[in-house]
Write a structure and sequence with these properties.
178 residues; alpha+beta; five-stranded antiparallel beta sheet; 5 helices; 28% helix
Length: 178
Amino acid sequence: MLYLYHYYERKVGPFVSLSGLPIEEAMKIQAQLDARNKTFHAHGRDEKYYEWRRHLEQLVRSLFIQKGGKPILQTPHYMVIGECPWLAAWFEDHGFVKIPWDALDPETVSITYGDTFPTFSPRVTDGMEYRRRVYTHEEIPGILQRYGMPQDAWKEPVFGQPAYVEVQVWSDIPSAYL
């Protein structure tokens, strides 16, 4: 059985995102995070980062709707398929939420093979079929069968190389898993 994982900093809690906030507010919180923890994986993100993230989230949402998806939220919660210790290492004191693959409504779950940023980056030009593509709950098993779990294939990820299968959850997480 497949499981979805969400890694987070215990001091902050799960499923907290800055991307749904106005950029000015996100930048204030980013500055507080940067001051508290210099080793935080998201240290030093600037306005351009948040603008690009917003653009990508709306692009993924739009592509998902074109495939029949029915997102409820404007910005997603992020998870990955399978355990990914490298993501846990992003946090000073990590926690994780583990949810069975079938526990979420498939109409509110989109998937990219790899992180959204390199998946849609114009700098990544390897021509792989999963570039610039969003998958549905029904489609991703075929991609996993062809390419496997990215986190099983590397020790240290390189930009552009898929490091995990990212899941965008466009609905609230069932309270049983929080």
